[in-house]
Write a structure and sequence with these properties.
- 4% of the residues lie in helices and 46% in strands.
- By secondary structure, the protein is mostly beta strands.
- The chain is elongated, with a radius of gyration of 30 Å.
């Protein structure tokens, strides 16, 4: 039935002021490199020295104090090359750039006449990172390949996500999920709407504290995923894994002694490089298929779809005959598929246009112990998600760049036993009565049906501006329009059984066995923030405004929440007294218009 009927028309607005003394946490897909270039003999600044990020068009020139900074640097290990007139070139290899952080590196150049050629050095990671005073864990693509994990959820758990994916003692529903700087959080339950395969991740950050003004909905943590891009040359990978779950405890785990190398199958394919006929357009594509039978099994001891039992003797187990084929069935199996394609096209040296599409699908069952001996009577579960992102990144000057994006994210979950609600294999609920106390089901089918989806369209924009050496300003906006649908059904059989054949029905919304809603909430956020960097202190100042319209409904009279079967004879509606028992239909038309 409909959950209430009074509309929220005025929405909810919140103004949050953040004054945080910590390192910056920007929603980002890029990092910053900063440092100083000096003469190794006298320590004087090398004015005008050029610093370039090899393989990109990013670079900077040292100012009058020898200081430089480079914004909008993709995460990962990069190589810097420094050139200055009269000095030997110097190359720094393996500098780690992390999203939303500043990588500090200083150069001491030698006079060219005193050296024999280019100086090459290797960057070393500092034991103490001045730019990271918040609780965070960063995992790069190389580190992820060394981890024996099946999906990103396991990496997040290892990276400090905490039990259930939360952080700081919070819940998983209090975490914000970002992919390439775009939120893929499902507005229904704040879960990750679209899953991403760990093979396409360039960098994963799990942040559990000191959030900046850019984040308006993160309470426990932030999961920031930056995906890989194409390359100038073609590359590809193909990998597969097989296995099974093995244990000697046959008395605890049914069928665990049976070993089949094909019970777990994992296939992954990636291909990336330039697009034929369009050399500037690069792509990164990946496919993955994972089929896991799990380790919890049931046994078909009874015939679930045609039980040999007299409907008049459900309570007596002596009337139930064990006529199943005794075969085993996986009861916590998991079948997952991922697909990803990312296209990047540089419009010029300072402007890049990219398009990303992500798809994930999961088919699985949750173990239900009561159905252990009729495992085919339990629910099948389905979860799908897809995200499409169109992004523009443009550098206006050495100190200013902006990003703008259009995004659509769709996530859906449903469960049922059979796809068609009138499938003839559904059994009357009386068959699911246990023959005796503290026993398991010997017949029956689960009659529950559930479906919900969230479709979100999002517009985001942000601009970063380095003001001098000390201030990095950022401002942005975020607009989301959601469509949230929910329907929960329990199939209803006829009240009187005349034979072993019956027709199920779906009751109207006024019945307790049928709940449904469809709403269109909207969100809007504005923020500005400043990262103030000193050698020994980093301070963040931020201001954020959030507006939320839930488009929700509650009962007009909270003392009488049943709008289809009202308990009270008279009710005040729009200032008038209405006899709802005499005119329930009129009440249904009027209810929900009160503000």
């Amino acid at each position: 039935m409909w959950l209430g009927n009074r509309s929220f028309r005025n929405g909810t607005a919140g103004l949050w002021l953040f004054i945080v003394m910590s390192s910056a946490v920007f929603a980002g897909t890029t990092g910053k490199i900063a440092g100083r270039i000096t003469d190794n003999e006298n320590g004087d600044a090398v004015i005008g020295a050029a610093v370039l990020v090899q393989g990109t068009s990013l670079g900077a020139a040292a100012d009058i104090n020898g200081d430089f900074y480079i914004l909008n640097v993709p995460p990962g290990n990069v190589t810097l090359k420094v050139n200055a007139i009269g000095y030997a070139p110097q190359t720094l290899e393996g500098l780690r750039v992390i999203s939303d952080q500043t990588s500090t590196v200083n150069f001491e150049l030698s006079v060219e006449a005193l050296t024999t050629g280019e100086v090459v050095i290797t960057a070393e990671r500092k034991l103490i990172e001045n730019d990271r005073t918040f609780a965070t864990s960063t995992v790069g693509s190389a580190d992820m390949q060394a981890l024996r994990v099946a999906n990103l959820a396991q990496v997040i758990e290892m990276g400090g996500g905490g039990g259930g994916g939360g952080g700081r003692g919070g819940r998983s529903g209090e975490v914000m999920y970002l992919v390439d700087g775009i939120s893929v959080t499902d507005a229904y339950d704040n879960s990750q709407g679209t899953q991403v395969d760990n093979k396409v991740v360039q960098e994963l950050q799990v942040i559990s504290g000191t959030f900046n003004a850019e984040y308006g909905q993160a309470m426990s943590g932030i999961v920031n995923i930056v995906t890989k891009e194409g390359a100038p040359e073609y590359h590809g990978t193909a990998s597969t894994e097989f296995g099974d779950y093995v244990s000697s405890h046959d008395d605890t785990w049914m069928n665990i002694g049976h070993v089949s190398p094909l019970d777990v199958q994992d296939y992954t394919f990636t291909l990336y490089g330039p697009t034929p006929l369009m050399n500037k357009l690069s792509f990164y594509g990946s496919l993955r298929y994972l089929d896991d039978d799990g380790w919890l099994y049931g046994q078909r001891r009874w015939n679930v779809y045609n039980p040999n039992v007299d409907p008049e003797h459900f309570s007596d187990s002596s009337y139930v005959l064990r006529d199943g084929d005794e075969s085993y069935a996986a009861m916590n199996y998991n079948l997952e598929r991922w697909a990803n394609l990312k296209l990047s096209y540089p419009l010029n040296e300072k402007t890049k246009l990219s398009y990303s599409t992500f798809y994930s699908a999961r088919t699985y069952r949750d173990y239900a112990h009561d159905w252990k001996y009729i495992p085919d009577g339990t629910l099948r579960r389905y979860r799908d998600g897809r995200t499409n992102v169109l992004r523009l990144n443009q550098t206006l000057s050495a100190a200013v760049f902006y990003e703008a994006s259009l995004t659509n994210t769709y996530s859906e979950y449903q469960h049922y036993l059979f796809e068609d609600w009138d499938d003839e294999r559904y059994l009357h609920p009386d068959y699911a009565v246990k023959p005796a106390g503290n026993t398991l089901f010997v017949a029956g089918t689960d009659l529950a049906r559930f479906r919900r989806y969230t479709n979100t369209n999002q517009v985001t924009g942000a601009m970063s501006w380095q003001v001098g050496k000390l201030h990095l300003l950022k401002g942005g906006l975020d607009l989301k329009a959601h469509e949230v649908f929910y329907e929960d059904i329990t199939l209803s059989p006829p009240q009187v059984i005349t034979s072993r054949e019956w027709d199920f029905s779906i009751e109207p919304l006024s019945a307790r066995s049928h709940d449904m809603y469809k709403n269109n909430p909207t969100e809007f956020g504005l923020y500005v923030q400043d990262k103030f960097e000193l050698p020994s202190l980093i301070v963040n100042f931020g201001l954020r405004f959030d507006y939320f319209d839930p488009d929700g409904r509650v009962p007009t009279d909270p003392r009488d929440p049943s709008i289809y079967d009202p308990l009270q004879e008279w009710r005040v509606v729009d200032g008038d007294s209405v006899n709802v028992l005499e005119d329930t239909a009129a009440e249904r038309r009027r209810i929900g218009t009160t503000t």
